[in-house]
Automatic annotation (TrEMBL):
Its cofactor is [4Fe-4S] cluster. Keywords: 4Fe-4S, Electron transport, Iron, Iron-sulfur, Metal-binding, Transport. This is Ferredoxin. Residues 1-30, 31-57 form the 4Fe-4S ferredoxin-type domain.
Length: 57
């Protein structure tokens, strides 16, 4: 399942990458947050920290 990232909303600030406890998030070649679905434990921390609400669980 993992999280869904709205690529049009993400600003590439990187806050979610820093917040993720399982290192499931990273910025891709375009500087947009992307998730490794296998690593995501669905904790919701990235959803809470995103300033533009680009992530949903
Ligand atoms: S829900 Fe938790 S584990 Fe999954 S990507 Fe977000 S911060 Fe990482
Ligand atoms: S916190 Fe939100 S805006 Fe910032 S990189 Fe993550 S998804 Fe993009």
């Amino acid at each position: 399942m993992a999280v869904i990232i709205d690529r049009d909303e993400c600003t590439g600030c990187g806050l979610c990458v820093d917040e993720c406890p399982s290192e499931a998030l990273s910025l891709d070649a375009e500087g947009i947050s992307t998730v490794d679905a296998d690593a995501c434990v669905e904790c919701g921390a990235c959803v809470d920290v995103c300033p533009v609400a680009a992530i949903t669980l």
